[in-house]
Amino acid sequence: MTVVNLNKARKARAKDEKRAKADANAVAFGRTKAEREADRASRDAQKAHLDGHKRDGIPEN
Questions:
Q1: pTM for this structure?
Q2: Helix (H, G, I), strand (E, B) or coil at 57
Q3: How many C-alpha atoms does 20 have within 13 Å on its Cβ side?
Q4: Which residue from 54, 30, 50, 31 is spatially nearest to 42, judged by alpha carbons?
Q5: Is residue 61 classed as helix, strand or coil in its secondary structure?
Q6: CA torsion 54→55→56→60, rounded to 10°?
């Protein structure tokens, strides 16, 4: 029979659960830096395109 420190076992189990949750979140929500930058560039290009078509003298609501 081996002696087990219950406090260490509890902390190890909690750490494993947190790591599993973090891995699941990384799969669900994680995006690479290249994907984020591509989205940002696309958004900026769309905004510039729209701003280029604004008419002067018309108030924005």
A1: 0.49
A2: coil
A3: 6
A4: 50
A5: coil
A6: -70
Cα 8 from Cα 16, distance rounded (Å) = 12
Q: Could you tell me the sign of the dihedral formed by the alpha carbons of 53, 55, 59, 61, in that order?
A: negative
Q: Measured between alpha carbons, how far is 49 from 60 in angstroms, rounded to an integer? A: 17
First to last CA, the chain: 76
Give the model confidence (pLDDT) of 20-58 as tens digits.
Answer: 999 999 888 888 889 989 999 999 999 999 998 888 776
DSSP 8-state class, residue 53: T
Other CB atoms within 10 A of residue 12 CB = 11
Residue 35 sits at the vertex; the CA angle it makes with 52 and 15, to the nearest 5 degrees, is: 140
